[in-house]
Amino acid sequence: MRRIRCAVAIAAAVMAGPLSATAQVPDTTVSFRGIVMRDTGSTWGLFLPVPAQVARVRFNFLHLAGSLGRIDRDENRYAELRGKLQADDAGHPVLAVGNVKLMNVPGEGDRSVQRTFMEHAEVSVGILPNKIVYADSASSGRTRPVITYAITNHSDAPIDFSFHNNKVICASVLPSDRSVEPIWTGAWTVGPYLTSLQINLSATVREAVAIPDSVTFAPGHYKLRVWLCEVTDYSAETTFEVATQ
Predict the structure, then answer these.
(1) For labeling, which of 22, 31, 68, 83 is most exposed (least CB within 10 Å)?
(2) Which of 5, 2, 15, 127 is nearest to 63 (CA)?
(3) Domain limits of the chain?
(4) What is the pTM (predicted TM-score) of this model?
(5) Which residues contact 28 (CB under 8 A, 6 or more apart)?
(6) Domain 5-102: assigned CATH number
(7) Superfamily for domain range 109-243
(8) Residues of the chain by 3-state class (helix, strand, coil), percent to 5
(9) Which residues have CB under 8 Å from 17's CB, separation 6+?
(10) Structure confidence by residue, pLDDT tens digits, 96-133
């Protein structure tokens, strides 16, 4: 549906190095779970909040190849992709996709929104992973939590939004035992719709935004709230944990 622009920039920076010409790439079918996203043009990839490792290469982004079909329908979806690993001309790992299985975001929180008699929607919020371990935080391949946000239109007509600026998705994090005074807030420019958004009948718009690398949380339990920056009614909450292992 929409591009994760911030994740593209991250993905370009997290390859620890190319696979060597003699590196052993598994010849068996392997699977990876992450966020389906467009890289550039017609190139697709899978963003991995928890890094994977092939040979001595750790990475948070995996380019996709093969018969991808209508993968654009699954943009910003959490999915399990199965296939065989290859290496591209630059030595980076590429997955020749054989199967795409859409997944529910673990621990996703939902909330119904009805601002008027005619306007009815459901907001869904999640975080991947919902148990965060900041292992190898000093290396290029580290856990990079991703916030997922979706609006499903259950109205009898399209829902239209107009914004004053292009900051669309806002979020805050609080300790689980606190209801006010968040310890962190963030806002993101996402997707190509700039200052307006229309959600058609029965349609779902999905976004996924990465928490900046500079942001980490101490071990504990937290609440995550996500909303449209200028339409705060369109919000939902979920919980997550930060652990040492």
Answers:
(1) 22
(2) 15
(3) 5-102, 109-243
(4) 0.85
(5) 84
(6) 2.40.50
(7) Intracellular proteinase inhibitor BsuPI (2.60.40.2360)
(8) 5, 50, 45
(9) 56, 57, 91
(10) 998 899 999 999 999 999 999 899 999 999 999 999 99
